[in-house]
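ugh ok fine here u go
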Amino acid sequence: MAPVPLPIEDYAVIGDLHTMALVGLDGSIDWLCLPHFDSGALFARLLGSEEHGYWRLAPAGAPGTVRATRRRYRDDTLVLETEMDTEGGTVRIIDCMPIREVHPQVVRVVEGVRGSVDVHMDLRIRFDYGQSVPWVTLHDHLLTATAGPNAVSLWTRAETRGEDLSTVADVTVREGERFTFSLAWYPSHEAPPHPIDANYAVAATEQWWKTWSSACTYEGTYRDAVVRSLITLKALTYEPTGGIVAAATTSLPETLGGMRNWDYRFCWLRDATLTLESLMRGGYHAEAMAWRDWLLRATAGDVSKLQIMYGASGERRLDEWEVDWLPGYEGAAPVRVGNAAAGQFQLDVYGEVMSALYSASRADGVHTRAIWDLQTKLTAFLEDGWKEPDDGIWEVRGPRRHFTHSKVMAWVAVDRAVKTMEDWPDLTGPLTKWRALRDEIHKEICEQGFDTKKHAFTQYYGSDGLDASLLMIPLVGFLPASDSRVVGTVEAIERELMDDGFVLRYRTDQSGAVDGLSGREGAFLACSFWLADCLHMIGRKDDATALFERLLGLRNDVGLLSEEYDQVANRLVGNFPQAFSHVSLVNTAVRLSGADVSTTAEPPAPGRWPRRPGPTVLRSASGGSARWRVGTLSRRHGADGRRSKEAPKETGRPVDGKGGS
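structure:
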């Protein structure tokens, strides 16, 4: 069969905080990895054809049978409703993944809204990214499909039958009637899980997400967009560890038909600070601290071998291989699993980790010995390591260079180490030496990373090319936004890296392009949000708002963004939904609406090392809890912002492995 993917923007998502499914506007689930984000796909039609697995539930008949389609999420939840109109009536498809207790479940309900509609279900199960056809059995409305270590069960009162190595069913749905379908994954050596009440599962899932989203503290102009982005970010969280994957997909191309196709089902350190700040700005302290603690666990060990990304549980081996039986999204090959960029050397991750740990400590007034030990080792490595060329923030596969942004982030790392010691006088370290190192790095960047003719910072030392990552210079505090060099850089990026009003990461169509790849790519959405931030900071508030609202217009009908936007095809491109895009949306919305309560505005009162441990339970605003093993005690801030001698607060590693709500 020929590939039949929908445009990326035609997909919505459902998830259970362990994995995520992409649901098309046509009622087909075309991507689902089970049991985890980075597991093999059960449905891989997204990157191939119908032969590679999907689950469609829609009115029967030719494509023209459906005259109109509408969809939405129920309020601030991840319960999806899709309504389809036909000549005979209207049906509503309700999709969700209940918050996982033991086994992952996908629940689908078809509900009659008006008239009478014939509905067809087509379930084609293909484990291992579309390669493995399972052995299927049916007993008393319970269908099971097994291949190797994987098995799924389908429970429905609809009559199913086998047809062309797939399972199909036909039902007539009248107004007020419902048919339910529950699909569960389980290890093939175990018995199938007991069927669940699908209607109850939908109601419980809706209530869970309503409770969670109601804890959002942002009340600014763009609340709907912010809440949807925070829900998406929560859905991309691997709940057992607190790690947040960059996207739910692999190999959705940055260029339609091109080879810029990467696996994004992992956790990038480059996202650390901005992700933590977006969670804090949304009021999700527990989730932010869970992300911080994931960061501590993942980066533990030899700091000279710090990776740029890890698996959702902190895995370090992310070997890259090509799925040669999948033709790729709209023919964009190869399809890759794993990511070889994990072995790259990127200076900027040291700054990201240091900045995130510093922001977290300022936010909760706590600093542990474990955190400071890591920070001192990271900074000690940079005493010489900052001088080395690296692969840069964009993971280019060309030669290493002295990237300006990388040097700026090395400065950030040392700056945060200095500020940490200034904020917590009890900490010990070579403060004078690190202050001098901070000044040395700053001086070199201003001398070698700045082009006086262009009056802008450039991509790497000696280059006259630009890079959107330079927009981070005022955002991380390297220079104030009012500095003429910052203004000049912003204006140069507007002149040279803008395409149809959006920001490119760098020019791929010029000789000397750094990434070692052929072809063009779309506008990187996070960079466009950064430009809006910078425009706001340099006083061009109307321009910032106009750009931000244009970016909001790129979201699909249910508020989701991918990694990039193709200005030629007028389509979203890249992996989806993209955490970095939604993180940047939240941070920019908060900044532009004037609702920002900075997580690093004022240093907390100095903490003290603990005299003795004592367990506690921390509860998030969203009602979750995590039992914590003692790492340190500090004084909790009172209502007036001053330290209180009461209520010692413990931090450290969650005993139950969970750090979120």
